[in-house]
Amino acid sequence: MEKKRWCSSCTRAVPVEQTDLGLICCIRCGKVLEEDIFSTEATFVKDAGGHSRLAGSLVSTIQGRDSASRERTLQNAEDTIRYIADNLGVGGGDQICLPARRFYEMALMRNFTRGRRADQVAAACLYIACRENNKPFLLIEFSEILRVNVYVLGAVFLQLCKLLRLEEHPFIQKLVDPSLFIHRFASGLLGEVNQEVEKTALHIVASMKRDWMQTGRKPSGICGAALYIAAMSHGYKFSKADIVKIVHICEATLTKRLIEFEDTESGSLTIEEFDRKAVELERQGNLVKKAEKGELLCEHRGSGEPHFAHGLCQTCYGEFIKISGGLDGGAEPPAFQRAERERLARASA
User: For the Cyclin-like domain, which residue ranges apply (predicted)?
Assistant: First the structure.
C-alpha cells in the first residue's frame, strides 16, 4: 500500500519516499517531511585505542517495549475518552472514539504524555476527532468535564496539533461554522426540538455572516445572540443568563453581539420581514451558477480542476458560500466602510 503523509506545501496528503539518508520527502514538491535518520544495519567505528565499537544508539521499537504496560495505558486512555464522550453526548461511538484513541497512541509513542495529565491529552485527542468529523462541541465544554482551565487545555491541544503536524491541516485551520451548534444549543435551551426557532436562528446566523459579524469572533457568541433573538421572536421568555449557561459566554459578550446585530440593516426588520428576506436570499443562493472563465487561485491550483468563480474551483466556492453566508444581501466589509467614511470626511472638509 502506498504511504501518504500531509504536505503543507501541496496542502494535501501525498505519496512519500525515503532517501538513503533516512529523510522522508514529498515526491511531488520534494519537501522534507520527516528527518528521523536511522539505519537497520549495524555499523562499527574505531575508538582512540583502535578498538571497534558499535556506532550510533539503539532505537527501541513498539514490539520491544513493555507491551502489557503500554496496552494498559492505552486502555485507560480509551476509557477516559469514552467517559468524556458519554458525558458530553458525543454521538458516533467508535467512529469518534477510535480515531481519538489512535491520536493518543501517536502522542504516547512520541512521549507527549510525559509531564502532562493523561485526561487532558485524552480530551485534546477527542476534540481533534470531533473537529475532524464536524461535531458541534466547544473546547470549553471539555474543560468543564475535566474541571480544568480552558486555556490550559487549549495549550495541550495546540501542542498536540503541532506534534502530530496538524496545525496546517484544513480541518484545524478552517473556520468553525456557528450553524453547526444551533441545533444542540436550541434543544438545550428550550428543552425540546423546535424547528421554527432553529430555522430562524440559522437565518440570523446567515445574516450575521453576510454582515461580517462572524469575522474574528468565536462561534459561541454568534450562536448565543441568534438563539436569544430567535427565541424571543417566537414568544419564549429567556433571560440573557439562560443563554449564557447554554453557549458558555459571558453576558457582556452576548450584549455586544446583540448591539452589533441591531446596527445592521436586518436588525431593523420585523420577524416576518426578516424571514421573507431570508427565504428570498436562500432561493437566490440555490440557483445554479454558471462557471466563469478565469485563473484558479485556490488550494486546488495546478490540480486540473476548472475555474468556477472568483478564483475558486466549484468545491472551494461552495465552502466559501457556506462559511460566508453568501455574497448577496449583506453589508460592505468593515475596513471598506471605515475607509469610505474617512474619504467622505476628507471630501467634506
Answer: 79-162, 180-263
Give pLDDT, residue 287. 44
Q: What is the residue-averaged pLDDT of the chain?
A: 80
Q: E-assigned strands of the chain?
A: 4-7, 12-18, 24-26, 32-34, 44-46, 52-54
Residues 100 and 116 in one domain: yes
Q: Are residues 269 and 299 in the same domain?
A: no
H helix or E strand, kind and range, residue 85: helix 67-88
pLDDT digits (tens, 9 = 90+) for 333-346: 666 667 777 888 88
Residue 40 has pLDDT above 80, yes or no: no
- Rounded Cα gap, residues 67 and 172, in angstroms: 32
Q: In this predicted structure, what is the pLDDT of residue 118?
A: 92
Domain range for 339: 288-348
Q: Phi and psi for 17 in degrees, rounded to 5?
A: -140, 155
| Selection from 209, 216, 235, 237 nearest residue 226 by Cα | 209
Regarding whether 209 and 156 lie in a shared domain, the answer is no
Find the DSSP H helices in 193-333. 195-210, 219-233, 240-247, 251-262, 271-285, 314-324
On whether both 88 and 103 belong to a single domain, the answer is yes
Q: Which residue has the higher pLDDT, 75 or 11?
A: 75
Gap between the Cα atoms of 207 and 329, Å rounded:
8
* 56, part of any domain: no
Q: What's the DSSP call for residue 267?
A: G
Taking the C-alpha atoms of residue 161 and residue 125, their distance in angstroms, rounded to an integer, is 9
Do 102 and 20 share a structural domain?
no
52 in a structural domain? no
> Could you tell me if 127 and 88 are in contact, meaning their C-beta atoms sit under 8 angstroms apart?
no
- How many domains does the chain divide into? 4
Measure CA 202 to chain center: 19
Tell me how far CA of residue 303 lies from CA of 12, 27, 306, in angstroms. 11, 15, 9
State percent of the chain over pLDDT 70. Answer: 80
Residue tagged 444551533 (cell numbers): 182
Phi and psi based region of residue 50 (left: phi greater than 0; alpha: psi -120 to 50; beta: remaining) = left
